[in-house]
Every structure is written in structure tokens, then in C-alpha cells.
Amino acid sequence: GLPDQTKRxxxxxxxxxxxxxxxLLVIDxxxxxxxxxxxxxxxxxxxxLFLLKSAGHTLHxxxxxxxxxxxxxxxxxxxxxxxxxxxxxxxxxxxxxQCDVHLSYELRNRGAHExxxxxVIWNDFDRVQRTVFRSLFTVIDFLY
Length: 144
Description:
Number of strands: 2
Helix content: over 70%
Distance between the termini: 37 Å
Oligomer: single chain
Shape: globular
Largest sheet: 2 strands, antiparallel
Order of helices and strands: HHHHHEEHHH
């Protein structure tokens, strides 16, 4: 394997985020295809909420927005909370699937609108990657 210093830096983190972004786009399109509400201008947040509801892990819009505000305030801290399963919305801790789907939403959002990555991506890429794959498998299990 490669030495750690070649895998744990901003450049590597950007490549990792770009790879995940392609998978996140696949997740977005797959949910849209299965969602009976076909609004061409719907946001990925609406798709994420549809996925959670379909999987029996409903998250209310106001809770989703509360978590999103945490990511906007401090992306790295919120990302770590999602990985650790400690994210909460209005004092209620999100379950594993809610954390996974919300983190996937935030990574997709960030990948589309911002060009920089954060140290958690390259320092804990295995867990970040597993989160995105769990979201993909949830799409397959509950929508297809």
C-alpha cells in the first residue's frame, strides 16, 4: 500500500470527494426514478426525505433543516457527528440510516457547490465511503 502521507492530505481528499460525488449522483438519480412525485425541479433534500420515509426512518422536514444548519455552521463537526452517530435534530439523536442519508445529502450538496474538502474526508475516508455505500444499498433495498 501507499504510505499514509500520500493518502492523507487535501489533494487526496479532493480526489476521494470527487469519486464519492459520482456515486452520490447515481443515488440521486435512482431515488428520483423511484419517487412517484415527479417534480423536475425537486431538490436532493426532498429525495433524501422520500428515501428515509420509504425505508421506515422518517425524518421531518424541520428536523432535516435543523441538521442542515449544523452542517452549514461547521461542516467538519457535523460530518464527524454523522459518522459517529451523534447527530441530533431538535434534541433527538438521528439513527444510523438517518445519519447516513443526511451525510450523503450534505456531501452531494457540497460536491456540487464547493471545491474544497475537509480533513475528516481524508482522515476517515473508509467510514465516509461506507456511509455513502449504505445509502446506495438503502436505495436498492427499499426502492427497487
